[in-house]
Design brief:
Rossmann fold; NagB/RpiA_transferase-like; GlcNAc_PI_deacetylase-related; Glucosamine-6-phosphate deaminase-like protein; alpha/beta; 17 strands; EC 3.5.99.6; LmbE-like_dom_sf
């Protein structure tokens, strides 16, 4: 069973020459905008192996010399695949850590002595407890010391590093704001180990380790920027498109304390190691025509022309030969013969993505339409990772499918229970208790007992505590009720609303269980029963919580099993990927775009607002202060404006989709 098919989704196939150049001359040419040596790999695994190969060689070299190898490491999740590869080689008998000294790059502060959510504990769980390192060779800041002693403690920590001859290597991830270790924006290049306040964005990133953002300690003791730069070799890693923007600033931007990672540009042996997704905003990947000659695919031509429109502030059909020549796109003139020919080709391609008939228009020529006219009506399944993703991501399209006569089912893949605040439970418990008193004279003993029990639990609940099963069940029930209300508003029959409650989600924590066969079989049972002609799945592969990716992997794995079983219904099925509140598809990848009128956008907003628990009181709104309906509308309006700016039809808002080829 293939459980990670989403990792094989490649929307823009980057030629190998742009991330794995054959010669030093080619590398010099394509990296002309980069100020830190940056190695790009197709997968996280390949990137991790490249780092571990170097570490293994250096550790063994020091062993031969009878010397210690001094490492500083962070405990961020981006380092986990590297730790796993190091552990794998150790267990295979290829690598010993007897001569390795480890310094933890940072520790949270203040910490109670009994607090288990320490950086060093995470490091032990993921790495140190699985290798043969001497416990006496592990050094970490102490988050339990008195605040008055921190300054002297940090000085001694620096002295301890120097006593071993300094750091041979430091291995770090990078935060979304460019923080390395916990050196937040504003950190000076001259800083050494010190106490620092953790900013809100970093706290939001760290909450997975603590259960909630509020439980993350306010400060940390961190190695300073100067301490990091003193290492003889530096590796900074980042995986996934979520880190693409900050990687561009780090590698191609100016050196500034607003992006502490940019100080790596001043080091003579710093290396940024990333996958293609994290590299997606680097010039050689996003705009390869600016660094070398390109093999022009339809998508790359579309991307180039959209970029040209944006920098010239012209619609597509007004671009001239001069615009192409002055902006590095003369190759396209040679390819198409003139700007006019290229303009018409891309204009038509984009125009053909727009449709008001997401399920296909019956009895119409579908040659240039993204969806087939037949069969009609279609059986449709919309898979929604959380109980509101369907309306947030494609609420306008969902209503159109129903109104145009298709047989629409919605499958809510997870309960979404951890995204419900405790006050919502209290509110509903008061209602149930009041109902009992009004209509049963308060004589229902089950309600009385549960009311008392749950009220006591919530009153005594501490930050970071996992909800009881009863509380999680009630939270899931609240979300089910909201989903049913929204579905009814969208005219979807309740017998077409399916709650799958995939088991991987039910950990009670932000960090979920691995997605497995049980999850896939639940999804497969549904799709093999309905035999849909259309499936919609989440394409938010950079979802901060990871739930969207796992849910999509479950659907893709189920489809793959049906394909292996040679299911006939698959021949008539198309799979469309949508994106949610986090991001929109790049325009070069959009294959279907469904417009909305002001009235349709208003109806979409109403359906989102039916999910009352996900408004201001929702625990996991992310680092974006806008509510979900506001994010969704802004995103849909931005897509419509982009089409308008390119000279296409002007709509109030648009929802975009990319086809997944089964």
């Amino acid at each position: 069973m293939k459980l990670n098919l989403s990792s094989q989704i490649v929307l823009n196939k980057v030629p190998e020459a742009f991330y794995r150049p054959a010669t030093a001359v080619e590398r010099s040419e394509i990296t002309r905008f980069e100020k830190v040596p940056t190695d790009i790999y197709p997968t996280i695994e390949e990137g991790s192996v490249s780092i571990v190969n170097q570490l293994e060689a250096e550790i063994k070299h020091k062993q031969q010399e009878g010397k210690y190898y001094v490492m500083a490491v962070g405990s961020g999740s981006s380092l986990t695949p590297i730790f796993q590869e190091l552990i794998k080689r150790h267990k295979a008998g290829k690598l010993s850590f007897k001569n390795v000294i480890i310094f933890n790059a940072y520790e949270y502060f203040p910490l109670n002595p009994e607090n288990l959510n320490r950086s060093i504990n995470q490091l032990k769980d993921r790495f140190l407890d699985h290798i043969d390192i001497d416990s006496q060779n592990i050094y970490t800041p102490d988050g339990t010391i008195n605040q008055n002693d921190v300054q002297e403690y940090c000085h001694l920590y620096e002295q301890r590093i120097k006593s071993f001859g300094g750091l041979d290597v430091i291995l770090l991830g990078i935060g979304r704001m460019g923080n390395i270790a916990t050196n937040e924006p504003g950190s000076s290049q001259t800083t050494t180990s010190r106490l620092i306040l953790i900013d809100e964005t970093s706290r939001e990133e760290m909450k997975m380790s603590f259960g909630s953002q509020e439980s993350v300690p306010p400060c940390s003791i961190t190695m300073g920027v100067s301490t990091i730069l003193s290492a003889r070799r530096i590796y900074v890693t980042a995986w996934g498109e979520e880190k693409a923007d900050i990687i561009k600033k780090t590698v191609e931007g100016k050196v500034t304390d607003a992006v502490p990672a940019s100080f790596l540009q001043t080091h003579n042996n710093a290396h940024v190691v990333i996958d293609l997704s994290a590299a997606s905003k680097l010039t050689r990947i996003e705009h390869p025509w600016l660094v070398a000659s390109c093999k022009w695919t339809d998508k790359l031509v579309r991307s180039a022309l959209v970029w040209l429109c944006q920098i010239t502030k012209k619609p597509i059909l007004k671009l001239t030969n001069k615009d192409y020549n002055e902006n590095g796109l003369s190759e396209l003139l040679a390819l198409y013969g003139s700007a006019y020919n290229a303009n018409i080709k891309i204009f038509n391609d984009l125009q053909h993505t727009i449709t008001g008939w997401p399920g296909g228009k019956p009895n119409a020529d579908d040659t240039y339409r993204p969806e087939r006219a037949n069969p009609f009506p279609k059986k449709v399944i919309v898979f929604s990772p959380h109980p509101d993703d369907d309306v947030i991501s494609m609420g306008g399209t969902l209503r159109r499918l129903v109104q145009q006569g298709h047989d629409v089912h919605v499958a809510y893949e997870t309960s979404g229970n951890i995204a419900v605040g405790d006050e919502e439970v209290v509110r509903f418990m008061h209602f149930i208790n009041g109902f009992n008193q009004l209509f049963s004279n308060g004589e229902d003993e089950v309600i009385k007992s549960k009311y008392k029990e749950i009220k006591h639990f919530l009153q005594n609940k501490k930050e970071g505590d996992i909800d009881s099963l009863d509380v999680r069940t009630i939270k899931g029930l609240i979300r089910r009720g909201e989903a049913r209300t929204a579905s009814t508003f969208n005219q979807i029959p309740l017998d077409h609303v399916h709650f799958l409650d995939l088991p991987f989600y039910e950990s009670g924590k932000i960090e979920k269980y691995p997605m497995g066969e049980k999850d896939v079989e639940i999804v497969r049972k549904l799709i093999s029963t309905i035999k849909p002609n259309q499936i919609y799945v989440a394409g938010d592969l950079a979802d901060p919580h990871g739930t969207h990716r796992k849910c999509t992997d479950a659907v893709l794995a189920a489809l793959d099993l049906e394909k292996e079983a040679k299911a006939d219904w698959l021949k008539e099925c198309k799979v469309w990927m949508y994106r949610g509140a986090w991001a929109e598809w790049e325009i070069e990848n959009i294959e279907m775009c469904v417009p909305m009128s002001p009235e349709e956008l208003r109806a979409k907003r109403i359906s989102i607002l039916k999910h009352q628990s996900q408004m201001e009181s929702a625990p996991f709104l992310g680092n974006d202060e806008r509510l979900f309906w506001q994010r969704s509308e802004d995103r849909n309006r931005a897509t419509a404006k982009l089409y308008d700016d390119l000279g296409l039809a002007c709509y109030e808002a648009m929802e975009a989709f990319v086809e997944y080829k089964i």
